[in-house]
Design brief:
The complex is a heterodimer.
Chain A: H1 3-13, H2 36-50, H3 56-59, H4 65-77
Chain B: E1 2-9, E2 13-16, H1 25-34, E3 39-42, H2 49-60, E4 71-75, H3 86-94, E5 101-105, H4 111-126, E6 130-137, E7 157-164, E8 172-176, E9 184-186, H5 197-202, H6 209-212, E10 215-217, H7 219-241, E11 250-253, H8 258-267, H9 289-299, E12 308-315, E13 319-326
Parallel strand pairs in B: 4-5, 4-6, 11-12
Antiparallel strand pairs in B: 1-7, 2-3, 6-7, 8-13, 9-10, 12-13
The chains are: A mainly alpha, B alpha/beta.
């Protein structure tokens, strides 16, 4: 899994938020229009594309896009 | 077993969900995308779930010979009394015969398929031929106006469904994961956590919460339980029929929210137009949602005779139940 591919998948989920720049250091909750329900969209996407089902507990320490990327990689490694 | 007909009733009081319902435009946009409700209906103070079900039932049975109805199931999480059963009260109100049996089914979001499963069992083992399944839910009674995870999501409704035995065999797939307790619950007012003076006093400005308690939902927890169990359960159900998803004409999941329905549609690789979503008008009406979607699809001429419809209810518990029926 590459970070650029991951960024692409995230950007697809955020189409409803319009155009904005998404980088590994983007802080998720600072994305313009970010709503707690976007977390659910990420959970759904990550389950679908990466077969990792994240819980609220898992996501507590996630701040940036890169944190999320690293978490998914780590969870994929557990299988 | 076949569904002969369905009638539904929404209470008169409408709540229109607009940008004015939210702190800002972005929250409204997120609501439209992720929840999807535009109008909710709310029972007034003196209306109970059974009143809504009775309205639907009266319409449904207006030209039915009531002596042909052998059993009544009432699915609701908001029953009239602890005892007697609300189904017993509805039996009297409808004027059903004394040999017509009754049963309440307070199971929530999976209530409609579970009621069908009960009906299927009775048809197959008791030699009866016609049943009435009623649903009534008033979840707005349990919604705190400051709880953003449940407000603007749930609505009240009543449904009546007339079932007849047939030679078309049905299968069901069901299950439960009790870890869902913390993700969706209404804890007050039962034996484990009675309403006490402190609780009642805390609701001076929200007195309706003293009727059934307060609905708490962890949307993330429910989504995770849904994605953990429902896709596998759908495939197990298809196996029982020897069908693939391609051979099913329509899918009706519990009408929970756009995000839950869309997540399942994506995970199961279902074409969007095969998955019915009637959340906009009425919202999440617990066990009423699947039969209302069925009735609306019928009204919109989306169903043809013989179409195979996969229904799957899931939620509070976390419990689930699904089946595949043919359109009559």
């Amino acid at each position: 899994m590459e970070i650029n591919e991951f960024l692409g998948h995230l950007a697809e989920e955020f189409e409803d938020l319009g155009v904005f720049e998404l980088t590994p250091s983007t802080i998720l909750k600072n994305i313009p229009g970010w709503n707690s329900m976007h977390i659910l969209l990420l959970v759904s996407m990550i389950d679908y594309r990466y077969h990792v089902l994240l819980s609220g507990e898992h996501l507590k320490a996630v701040v940036t896009v890169n944190d999320l990327f690293e978490l998914v990689k780590e969870k994929q490694g557990e299988f | 077993m076949i569904i002969e007909s369905i009638a539904y009733h929404f209470p008169e009081h409408q709540i229109s969900i607009s940008a004015a319902s939210f702190d800002d435009e972005q929250q409204f946009n997120a609501h439209q995308t992720f929840v999807g409700t535009t109008v909710l209906y709310q029972a007034v103070a003196h209306q109970t779930a059974s009143d809504l079900a009775l309205k639907a039932a009266a319409e449904l049975v207006s030209d039915v010979d009531l002596s042909t109805i052998d059993f009544l199931v009432f699915s609701s999480l908001t029953l009239d009394y602890h005892a007697p059963s609300t189904a017993s009260i509805l039996h009297k109100q409808l004027g059903l015969k004394a040999s017509c049996g009754v049963m309440d089914l307070p199971v929530g979001c999976a209530g409609f398929p579970m009621a069908l499963m009960v009906a299927n069992g009775l048809f197959n083992t008791m030699g009866i031929h016609r049943m009435l399944v009623l649903m009534g839910e008033v979840p707005t009674r349990a919604v705190h106006p400051e709880n953003s995870s449940v407000k603007n999501v749930f609505g009240d409704a009543g449904v009546a469904v007339l079932l007849t035995s047939s030679s078309f065999p049905l299968a069901f797939e069901f299950g439960n994961d009790g870890s869902g307790f913390s993700s969706l619950n209404v804890l007050r007012g039962g034996a484990r956590l009675p309403m006490d003076v402190a609780y009642l006093e805390s609701n001076v400005n929200t007195p309706w919460l003293n009727q059934f308690g307060e609905l708490i939902m962890d949307g993330h927890g429910i989504l995770k339980l849904t994605l953990t169990h429902i896709p596998n359960a759908v495939f197990a159900l298809l196996d029982k029929y020897g069908l693939t998803l391609d051979q099913v004409d329509h899918v009706i999941f519990h009408q929970a929210s756009n995000i839950v329905i869309d997540a399942l549609q994506r995970k199961l690789n279902l074409p969007k137009d095969k998955v019915l979503n009637y959340l906009a008008d009425g919202g999440n009406t617990i066990s009423c949602g699947i039969p209302i979607a069925w009735a609306k699809a019928h009204e919109a001429n989306r169903f043809s005779r013989g179409d195979k419809v996969l229904i799957f209810g899931f939620g509070v518990g976390f419990s689930w139940c699904g089946s595949i029926l043919k359109v009559h």
